[in-house]
């Protein structure tokens, strides 16, 4: 039978206190959310701990002990006492399929049907897989049937992240998908757009160290997804070439703003222009691959999203309104959260925030 334990719970809800932990190629991020008496979101804890290049590569944990120690430091630094954790796998590590099944099946009958269907889509034995599913709702074309979403990943991928959480004293109770988590955090802000964001086409870019992930969203549908191999690490490489820094020096100086006087014109501006061109090129792939020829908004998240001038450069390149996303917008800040530092780093927390929101899924 299908393993539907907590660590296969791509879709299950969790209402008890929960931290969202995002493990990327350049850092580990933690977010804990709550709600006040008025129902307003409260950012209770958050923090970020940098990772050395190569510790995590293409979503794979290459240096387990070092990443585990970084996560331990992060948990201590944030001051959270919560042990339950939601983590996520890269979309490239998860197979998702939407299938149609008869309505009215019991949970056990659904499991049997899903296992049978999953055999057709998963290129390895189900014994090697963590598998989950959720009923999305009635199938609009077939009365009496329902749409069911299946998600599956190799158990070793899940167990790597499980082990990291446990090594840091956390209890992993949810395994999500990174793109689902970032979209969940963005949807709250899309609802603040005109008409509540209804029927608007929004291109969401999450700019990581090595990869930029793009999702084009309309209402609850993902129209298009694409990853491209560019990101903030290329700016670090340019600093190394331009000024002779070591990679570690360049990364530290980039974070601290301790850079030569000509940095803005010699290095930053050309990089921002190149990044804007890459985003424009990604949008062109969307237009040539779908019936659409425009988007209503571009939203930028990830560590490099807040680079000075990037949003304006994207608007200039594409003609589309562009904003840098702040997943903590309109949230009340807990006493342990430093607002000044938070606002500078906020775009980095998009996925971690979406993971923390799993606590309140209905």
UniProtKB/TrEMBL annotation:
Source organism phylogeny: Bacteria, Pseudomonadati, Pseudomonadota, Betaproteobacteria, Burkholderiales
Any single biological process term in GO: cell division
InterPro entries the record matches: ATPase_NBD, FtsA/MreB, PilM, SHS2_FtsA
Domain SHS2: 18-186
PANTHER family linked to this entry: CELL DIVISION PROTEIN FTSA-RELATED, ETHANOLAMINE UTILIZATION PROTEIN EUTJ
Signal peptide: none
Listed name of the protein: Type IV pilus assembly protein PilM
Cited SUPFAM superfamilies: Actin-like ATPase domain (SSF53067)
